[in-house]
TrEMBL record:
Keyword Cytoplasm annotated: yes
Organism of provenance: Prevotella pectinovora
Gene3D superfamilies, alphabetized: P-loop containing nucleotide triphosphate hydrolases, Valyl-tRNA synthetase, C-terminal domain
Coiled coil feature spans: 530-560
Stated name of the protein: ABC transporter
């Protein structure tokens, strides 16, 4: 990594909203070239902290110091634009420089924004977020501050962004729920928890390991404090006459002990298993369904028989038809031909991208009790509405808050709880991970693994898919759908092998069928590789193979959770280097391959 020049230094930062403390006296710094991920529960101040750091919001106390002259690019969670300005003007603030136009087109193309003259008001919220992201990347700031950059990106776009940010010496502070992104891009994790900030010098895998150590240590500390607290409580009750000036220090110590002893360590002791859910053997049969919108084909004579207890993931580029397929299944739109034959016992629970419109004046607990007072968890046991909310990390205090006080992520989580509380036997979740914090995702993953009904998940979150599904439908566009028996990583590995074999085959065909770009010789023949070029071509093939092998080994090591901090840092840097080297050598190899051998 480059010199550790401090780009951002935060000291003793405090922020409150009325009586509510968001964070108290927190300090951290970010050096040049560091890539930092910020993790916290919904509603605990992640977006607020980013807004403060970028001057969008004030704070109560502390200091924020940037290195002189650095330019910061800030991606807000929900950016806003003038609806009448064009995409190009939105990217360059009406001051586009000619030399940057080409770069803009390249980045916007990667983010699937094709029409640079289209008014921003005609774009969806997801497209506007992608334009805002492009704006940041095009202008090449010294430091990137990104709030949920992968929201509204499909998997291909996310992997492109992962590579783009991971390369070079970019400085980054990012909030994201995408754990693969965190693991592969970030070398430092900051956790905002219990009004404090904790720093972990490693990627997401390392953070998980070290956070558990911190929790275990805290448990020991709390137990010790509890014992001391009990003894001090007895003393306070027994010795009221000792509360004079000489005993003041003991009262102060007692107050501090009480704080520690009552600290809440949120650990789920219950594995929630809705074993009372019943679903028959017939689920649904998709009988040769076709659907198109004008010239855009979504499904074409598609057949699939969904199995009992199946947990399926649906992936594909944005606009390939994933959400349309869900709406066809649920009867919200009708197919052009064919039909869905759905079993009589099936009871859908549908979590949509649009979400539920709440009565903002209701209390959180009332939203849930309006659906049910309790939910069965099998074995003649049940959870009350309050216990169920607590399982999904709503504290008793939050449960009695009004809905309008919740953050955007907390509202999404409450919406999820309304779906699950209705006790469906077939969950259909369309992009459930957007705006949910990692802790909530872990709870949801555990719930889905244990869920004894059927599940369909539409998601671009690769980590979430790997943990929850065992079957994929891959929407490739134009009605083409790949049925794959496995999770996302297994599909990606399989697809990379197939793609590599197809590319090799095409390159061999090119050698035979594609005319050389070089002039024909006087005898009418086409230029062949020189001996030196042929040696270089063969050498590149070997080098690329070895580099790809090294890349796979590093990826496995990074995901193993067994590396030291130094090993994690070195391997993360090497992983980024290999990506660039493979790209460069592949380009050289392709150029040589165009010469007829």
């Amino acid at each position: 990594m480059a010199s550790q020049k401090p780009f951002l230094d935060v000291q003793n930062l405090t922020k409150t909203f009325g009586a509510q403390v968001i964070f108290d006296n927190i300090s951290f710094s970010i050096a040049e070239g560091q890539k930092v991920g910020l993790i916290a529960k919904n509603g605990t101040g992640k977006s607020t902290l980013l807004s403060i750091l970028t001057g969008k919001e004030d704070y109560d106390a502390g200091n924020i110091v940037y290195s002189n002259g650095i330019k910061v690019g800030y991606l807000e969670q929900s950016p806003t634009f003038d609806p009448n300005e064009s995409v190009l003007d939105a990217c360059f603030n009406h001051d586009g420089k000619e030399e940057k136009i080409l770069k803009a087109k390249q980045i916007l193309t990667q983010l699937r924004i094709a029409d640079l003259n289209q008014p921003m008001g005609q774009l969806s919220g997801g497209q506007q977020k992608r334009v805002a992201l492009a704006n940041i990347l095009i202008n090449e700031p010294d430091m990137l501050i990104l709030d949920e950059p992968t929201n509204h990106l499909d998997i291909e776009m996310t992997e492109w962004l992962e590579g783009f940010i991971g390369r070079g010496n970019k400085t980054l502070l990012m909030v994201t729920h995408d754990r693969f992104f965190l693991d592969r891009v970030c070398s430092i994790i900051l956790e905002l928890d219990d009004f404090n900030i904790y720093k972990y010098k490693g990627n997401y895998s390392y953070y998980l390991e070290k956070r558990q150590e911190r929790i275990d240590n805290m448990r020991t500390e709390v137990q010790r404090a509890n014992n001391l607290y009990k003894r001090e409580l007895e003393w306070m009750r027994r010795m009221p006459q000792a509360r004079g000036h000489k005993a003041k220090y003991r009262e102060d110590a007692f107050v501090e002990l009480e704080k520690v002893a009552k600290r809440k360590i949120e650990e789920r002791q219950l594995r929630l298993k809705s074993s009372n859910v019943y679903i028959g053997s017939k689920i649904f049969e998709c009988q040769y369904v076709s659907k198109a919108f004008d010239d855009k084909v979504i499904l074409k004579d598609f057949y699939y028989n969904f199995a009992r207890y199946e947990k399926m993931g649906i992936v594909g580029d944005n606009g390939a038809g994933k959400s349309t397929f869900i709406k066809l299944l649920l009867g919200k739109i009708q197919p052009d031909s064919g039909k869905f034959d759905i079993g009589e016992t099936v009871k859908f629970g549908y979590f949509s991208q649009e979400g539920l419109k709440f009565n903002e004046e209701q209390k959180v607990i009332d939203v849930i009790t309006n659906i049910a007072d309790y939910i069965d968890v099998g074995g003649k046991k049940h959870l009350s509405a309050s216990q169920f909310l607590q399982y999904f990390l709503f504290t008793p205090e939050q449960q009695h808050n009004y809905v309008y006080k919740l953050s955007g992520g907390e509202k999404r989580k409450l919406y999820l709880c309304t779906i699950l509380m209705a006790n469906p036997n077939f969950l259909v979740l369309d992009e459930p991970t957007n705006d949910l914090d990692i802790q909530t995702l872990q709870v949801l993953e555990e719930y889905l693994v244990d869920f004894p009904g059927c599940v369909i998940v539409v998601s671009h979150d690769r980590y979430f898919l790997d943990k929850t599904v065992d079957h994929l439908l891959v929407f490739k566009g134009n009605g083409e759908i790949k049925d794959f028996p496995g999770n996302y990583t297994q599909y990606r590995d399989w697809n990379s092998i197939i793609t590599s074999e197809e590319r090799e085959k095409k390159e061999k065909e090119k050698k035979v069928t594609v005319p050389s770009k070089h002039k024909e010789s006087q005898q009418g023949g086409k230029r062949k590789m020189t001996y030196k070029e042929k040696c270089k071509y063969e050498q590149l093939e070997k080098e690329i193979t070895e580099l790809e092998k090294e890349q796979r080994h590093i990826e496995e090591a990074l995901n193993s959770g067994t590396l030291t901090v130094d090993e994690l840092t070195n391997k993360s840097i090497r992983f980024s280097e290999i990506k660039q080297i493979i790209d460069q050598k592949s380009l050289e190899w392709l150029e040589l391959a165009e010469i007829e051998g």
